[in-house]
């Protein structure tokens, strides 16, 4: 017997809110970690502004290590760390921790890719005018790559939405948890369909907003 969506709707709305909050918080912390990490990968590489071979190898290795672990495995592997940070391994707050571990290295790579697209001639011109490495980073690299950064952050956000759904396997809350608890374990097809539609709507909204902001920034 299928659940009555009319009476079940408040739970669906609550799960949607949990997904949005989960993704937003995880994205914020992932950017705070991934942005400086991505910048460091660019400036410390060979012929970079602050070339430092050993540091680059360490940072590159850390990013590669975490990016090589599938999210569902990472989710389980860092459960002790999750419990230490938030005091529990289930719920929305607990899901944020592995989401950050998963997305921060990904964002770092996306930031690295965006900054490497900046025209070297613009950087050389800034250097010839006596700009310091930090001035070049904040006044040349980031402004020049801003449109690309917005698109890449949009991609990372969509990846987070998908990962947040997988967090439902360990009781992470949100639409993923709802889909697994009712759509998979109880064979409530109508709940599964609604959660899929809502996830698609969230992804489409994020992509549309990201495209709009990127175009607006590019015109300046």
Helix content: over 70%
Computed structural class: mainly alpha
Could you name the CATH homologous superfamily? MetI-like
Largest sheet report? none
Shape: elongated
Number of domains: 1
Q: Which percent band covers the strand fraction?
A: under 5%
Query: What is the chain-wise order of helices and strands?
Result: HHHHHHHHHH
**pLDDT averaged over residues:** 86
CATH architecture term: Orthogonal Bundle
- State the helix count: 10
CATH-defined topology: MetI-like fold
Could you give a quick summary of the protein structure above?
Residues 16-210 form the ABC transmembrane type-1 domain. This protein is an all-alpha fold and 220 residues long.
Overview of the structural elements:
There is one protein chain. With 220 residues, this protein is an all-alpha fold. The protein has one domain: MetI-like fold (Orthogonal Bundle), CATH 1.10.3720.10. The protein is 81% helix and 0% strand. It has ten helices and no strands. Helix 8 (146-166) runs antiparallel to helix 10. The N and C termini lie far apart (56 Å).
Helices and strands, with pairings:
Elements: H1 5-43, H2 53-67, H3 71-77, H4 79-86, H5 92-116, H6 120-128, H7 133-144, H8 146-166, H9 174-184, H10 189-219
